[in-house]
Amino acid sequence: MDARRAAELAVRNSYSRLVAYLAAQTRDVAAAEDALGDAFLIALKTWTEIGVPKNPEAWLLVTARHRWIDTARRTQVQDKILNTLKLNELASQPEASFDGVNIPDERLKLLFICAHPAIDPAIHTPLMLQTVLGLNAAQIASVFLVAPATMSQRLVRAKTKIRDAGIAFELPEAAELPTRLAAVLEAIYAAYTNAWETIDGGDPRHQGLAEEAIWLVRLCIQLMPQAPEARGLLALMLYCEARREARRGQGAYIPLLQQNTQLWSQPMINEAERELAQAATFKQLGRFQLEAAIQSIHAQRAVTQQVNWEALALLYEGLIQLSPTLGAFVSQAAAIAKAKGLDQGLARLDALPIEPIKNYQPYWALKADLLKQLGRKSEAQQAYSRAIGLTEGFAIREFLLDQSSRLDE
Amino acid sequence: MKYAILVYETEQDLANREMHMPAYNAYSQALADAGVMVGGAALHPSHTGTTIRLQNGQRNVQDGPYADTKEQLGGFFLIDVSDLDVALDWAARCPAASNCAVEVRPLL
């Protein structure tokens, strides 16, 4: 394996460990990333000349520390940090330790820092993607539909706050743990749903951040095996992931109920079922376990050829109690329309307050579909138009245009 | 804040404008229903443009666009929203965003 490849692999595998470890000692996430970035560049150059060291991760860490100390000395503004480093005897690590550094895993602390209540919730996911996965600001900006310069500023601001406000790199106390963990999982889920929504016509395999999100939740489970909601979230994402290949046919959008279940990944569904069952053994129901249970019912269609709409409507009822999101209300209306009749589903939609649904595409898409089935053509036409105007993405827009043009058939 | 959503289109899109009309009508209606629409217009293809320069007091008039590019400005929407993030959300829903490209610029 050549030097560049070895360096890349070492960085991918240990990036988060190294950032977490360095940041936990100094609370300075940005400086940790900078030092590590420098170390990576030095590694590429040095390893090409002298070969890859026995323990690349330790080599990167020691080099990063040296870079950091150099920078701190040069700028002389980070005395406190330098002291911390010295106290930890980081400054005088002999070169021999390239082979023998034992790096404690501080990633869990880093995850909790990224989703800390003192940090703007909108930046939780971007922060996690950058510090834990090493994505750059431009990549993250594209995913969240934000100008790259703005995203970069927001990330810098968040890291400055972590440093200057002295947010501790500690695990939350037991009493706080459920809320704090919920914020971490929420941030991971945001990365996933984003990836889910941005897949578009041409390429159903476009992954977005799906893989990254699944990697993050697996990391959570590995670090916190006793957290049922983390398993619930993994199950939820696996159920959705299992359907990836079935979501588009020659670039065209295929609604869930028309998907060919043969194209669903059965191994992924099986893994999701196992995770969900495992989560249930803790007897602490949560939002993600419920959402996973909902997807599990859809997954059963592969076996039973039908969907249990009554069960779905009930699960949505429970979900709304725990987590009353707009998405849950709209999905519940869809389930009720199937279980109890179109009128009742439509009544649920009509009962929602107008301001939040005004620009919410799924609301208008469902409304259009229900009105169409009820034979209320002109109202359906208006709802379709609204849904089309709010749609981002070619395949779904084409699908809705097609549906609306068939109203007169 | 007011922003212009500049709609860029390929030759092919311009040739098939009729086909894209329902999508653009729906988009423009959604902007109006959301209460963010300030104005906008669709432009004829760039070959219908005429470019004028006054150089050393001399008039120089040319057939065609100022910049001859493969993708051309096909029209624009003017919107009034709270910030750039919201403007980008609307820009992403513009049909041209998935066909070619849209550019968002704040108005002076």
Task: Please tag this protein with its features.
heterodimer, A: 409 residues, mainly alpha, two-stranded antiparallel sheet, 22 helices, 2 strands, B: 108 residues, alpha+beta, Alpha-Beta Plaits, 4-stranded antiparallel β-sheet, globular
Description:
The complex is a heterodimer of chains A (409) and B (108). By secondary structure, chain A is an all-alpha fold. The longest helix of chain A is centred in the N-terminal third of the chain and has 24 residues, at 3-26. In chain A, helix 10 packs antiparallel against helix 11, helix 10 packs parallel to helix 12 (228-242) and helix 14 runs antiparallel to helix 16 (309-322). Chain A is built from 22 helices and two strands. Among the domains of chain A are: 3-105, no CATH class; 107-166 and 175-198 and 209-224, no CATH class. Chain B has 108 residues and is an alpha+beta fold. Chain B has a single domain, classed as Dimeric alpha+beta barrel (Alpha-Beta Plaits, 2-Layer Sandwich). In chain B, 34% of the residues lie in helices and 38% in strands. Chain B is built from four helices and six strands; from the N terminus they run E-H-H-E-E-E-E-H-H-E. Chain B has helices spanning 11-15, 17-33, 84-93, 95-99; strands at 2-9, 37-42, 50-55, 58-63, 72-80, 101-106. Chain B has a four-stranded antiparallel β-sheet with strand order 2-5-1-6. In chain B, strand 3 (50-55) and strand 4 form a beta hairpin. The mean pLDDT of chain B is 94. The interface between A and B is medium-sized, with 22 and 21 residues.
